[in-house]
Amino acid sequence: MTSDPIPAGLEAWLPGFIADELRPEKIEEWVVRTGGAIKAAIPDLAAQPELPVALDNAIREHWLAFLGAFTQPTFHFRLVEGGVLLAQEVAARQFPIEVMIKIYRVAQQASWAYVTGVINSIPPDTVDHTAVLVY
């Protein structure tokens, strides 16, 4: 949970970023990029019937929930329904709990790489990059 103020300059930039990221093709790029990283790190997932679909749905729902909450003054994490269904699918196939941990760790790494790239693309005279990363 955070209640930090939006960094100077970000308030003007953020609505355009969110609008762009909510375009269907950008959402699918996010799913493909993040899902690809996870499937490469855990190849057994891709070999399971229906598991790749559950994974993609969970990624999509998490991203949409994040974008929807990003401009709110206080952030509260919530596990989206797709995340619950993914965990159930993983458990039903008797994968160890470490698989779920690895899914989220790889997704976090892919997200961090994407976000730092986006922030680095913002002209430095527009916003303090460090303040944005902390926010």
Describe this structure in words.
This protein has 135 residues and is mainly alpha-helical. The chain has 7 helices and no strands. Helix 2 crosses helix 4, helix 2 crosses helix 6 and helix 4 packs antiparallel against helix 5. The longest helix is centred in the last third of the chain and has 25 residues. It is elongated, with a radius of gyration of 16 Å. The chain starts with 9 loop residues before the first helix and ends with a helix. 13% of the residues are buried. The mean pLDDT is 89.
Distance between the termini: 11 Å
Shape: elongated
Q: pLDDT below 50 for ≥5 consecutive residues: which ranges?
A: none
Q: What helical percentage do the residues reach?
A: over 70%
The percentage of residues in β strands lies in: under 5%
Number of helical segments with 4 or more residues = 7
Task: Give me the secondary-structure category.
Answer: mainly alpha
Give a quick set of tags describing it.
135 residues, mainly alpha
